[in-house]
Amino acid sequence: MEVWVVATGLIAAYLALTIVVGIWANRRMTVDVEDFFLYGRRAGFVVLYLTVVGSYHSAFAFLGSGGFFYKHGIGFWEAGTWTILTGAITWVLGTRVWALGKRFGYITPADMLADFYESEAVRVVTALVSVVFTILYIQAQAAGLGYIINVATGGRVSIELGTFILLSVAAAYLMAGGLRAVYWTDVLQSVWMYIALWVGGLVLAHELFGGPFELFRQVAAQRPDLLSLPGPQGYFRPGMWFGLSVVLSFGIVFQPHIMIRYYTAVSGRTLKWLGATTPIYLLSIYIPATMVGLGGAIAMPGLAQPDRIFPELLFRYSPAWLTGIVLAGATAAAMSTLDSILHSNMTVLTRDIYQRYIRRDASQAHYIGVGRLIVIALLLIGYVMSIATSNFLVVLVALSGAGALQLMPAVLGVCFPTRRLLTRAGVLSGIATGLIALYLTLYVVPHPLGLHAGVWSILANLTVTLIVSRTSRPPSAATVRRIHGEIEDYVYGRTGA
Amino acid sequence: MHRAHGMTGSDDYPRYASHYLPRTRAGRIAILAFLALLLLAEPPIVFVFANRIEPRFAGVPFLYAYLLVVYIAMIVVLAIGARRVR
User: Fold this and answer.
1) Residue A216: which of B61, B75, B82 has the nearest Cβ?
2) What residue of A is the nearest CA neighbor of B68?
3) Could you report the per-residue pLDDT of A424-463, keeping only the tens digit for each?
4) Whole-complex ipTM
5) Which one of A91, A279, A355, B25 counts the least CB within 10 Å of its CB?
6) Its pTM surpasses 0.95
7) Domain ranges across chain A
8) CATH architecture for segment(s) A3-392
């Protein structure tokens, strides 16, 4: 049987399975906003673990990371730093977000920030930053999905049609079952993509080099420039190394699909253990990516598009069944991120914009219906953006992360009580300054002094936030006592007031 | 109780010790251990000390093996911290 038939068949089987899971989730769903948007705040360790890692790792983990090792060498192993930092942040910050969400009924990040800073402007700005920068993520995942199905079918299904089919499936199960469907499909997707990437990487290493250790020996002999910093093209210099550590940890954590996951945990203890253990999955998935990228640089040098190294190797050197399983795994990686972002954007737009400013006191069923319509709109926007532009995946991811990173001072000001309070004027001016600085250091003077644009932008943001907060009106004493008191109680078990 | 900066009027603000500084011994040890390991995986240490291919471990270049060891140690610190720190 031809490779494309097997690959397409396995992807179709995988998609059918996700739809079945979506229908199953729909049958368990109640007409309740917290159930639809937040899984009823009942997510246990296993489900939450697999949905967090699935949401974190996207099409980039499959396509972009191998391409990065292929092009820039071993420097991409720095990924371990940001994946572990993500775990640490989840433990320290996520547990606090969870505690406040449970106590005060927050559903979105903007709920929490608007409540503390007593500002509707903060709510709207947070919602806009959350949505605008994660739409770029939808674009990246959609483009990856289209490419995967185009490759799997041997070019018989166009990138545009492939993108549309896979976006539609993700939107269908999301609309059917809400966050429950997203979580359950993420469980399937995360397990599938982990196994697929490891099996694919190991099989290719054995087929091409006789094993992973021999692979490294041959890379050292033939391309030693791939095994040291800053890499063949000088990408991984100290400023970029440090900047990626910050942007791809803090920046991703502050994206709404991760922040909302914190609200859904059944307990703070669940989140603490999640933070301590998710780096194991997040980090180890880059080991087979190393084999694919470095091995590919020896076996298939000169690829014009390094992102394509994994599927190119599979089609040339692996059996059809493995190619199918791995490409279905790549589909799972992209869809598990895509559905989470679609869901979070739906939640933000429904809760922070529609429910707040358009129709306040409608029924729960009404808001769920509006959320479903918003998913369709987001799907169309993501589709149009994905076929209109095509850029290197990691650049899109970094841009998304650096945008959401601008929420960091505001969130820290809520979750970490100190004697100096941040103010609404402080965080709003800080976010505006940070976004301007991000634009300037990404496009006008890219990465000044070799330091990643995300770092420049957050430094500018923090500076302005602190200065303006010293000269403007803080939240009321009652609000500070209520929210910071809750944090003090939660973390230390007593009020420090 | 103290009055927050930039505030006029008679509102009294609660006063909390900074949450950026751990208050327990276990917390301080966990934070220091994690940050020390993080420094080992960041510039300049990783560029000056670890940026080399030799010696290799079962064919794996030094930089890769070095970072793997540091990463594992960081995860161990997180896991121990999750057991012992509030």
Assistant:
1) B61
2) A80
3) 999 999 999 999 999 899 888 988 998 989 999 999 999 9
4) 0.90
5) B25
6) no
7) 3-392
8) Up-down Bundle (1.20)
